[in-house]
Amino acid sequence: MTPPRSACGAPPQGGAASGPAKPVPRRPLGSAFVLLTLLPLSTLAQATGGRFEPAQIDAGREQYNRTCAQCHGRNMVNAGTTVYDLRKFPVDQPERFHQSVTNGKGNMPSFKDALTPEQVAVLWAFVGSRGGKEN
């Protein structure tokens, strides 16, 4: 029997001996956070002067760890040889990020059916702030 694989083709963390994957519980989002994520990405960047609220970055970090870390590395740290190094993603291109996540690019699959626009927006807050380091 072939072990399960993630969207990027990597075996699940813990290997085959760890048993079936457990679902990740979802946390409700705060109302101020939800209001900010309802804005289009370009409006969000303009409204915050290109900066993000700490709650957005934190929610983006949690979403990143659930959705992206297996391929792009914990805290966006990876060799950048087989997957894109998100620490180098141009911070002035939120639309490009949204398109790449939504439609897929290269080896990365589309997350159109897996992530809501709000989840993509908080992912951008995390990636666009370099994990909160450049906010």
Overview of the structural elements:
The protein has helices at residues 31-37, 41-47, 54-67, 69-72, 94-103, 117-128. The chain is mainly alpha-helical and 135 residues long. The chain has one domain (29-128): Orthogonal Bundle (Cytochrome Bc1 Complex, Chain D, domain 2). Helix 3 packs across helix 6 (117-128) and helix 5 (94-103) packs across helix 6. It starts with 30 loop residues before the first helix and ends in a 7-residue tail after the last helix. 24% of the residues are buried.
In terms of structural class, how would the helical and strand content be classed? mainly alpha
Summed over residues and divided by their number, the pLDDT gives a mean of 77
CATH topology: the name is Cytochrome Bc1 Complex, Chain D, domain 2
Task: Provide the CATH superfamily.
Answer: Cytochrome c-like domain
Query: What is the N-to-C order of secondary-structure elements (H for helix, E for strand)?
Result: HHHHHH
Quaternary structure classification: single chain
* Sheet of most strands: none
Topology:
Layout: H1 31-37, H2 41-47, H3 54-67, H4 69-72, H5 94-103, H6 117-128
Helix pairs in contact: 3-6, 5-6
Summed up, what is this model?
With 135 residues, the protein is mainly α. The protein has helices spanning 31-37, 41-47, 54-67, 69-72, 94-103, 117-128. It is built from 6 helices and no strands.
Descriptive keywords:
135 residues; mainly alpha; Cytochrome Bc1 Complex, Chain D, domain 2; 40% helix
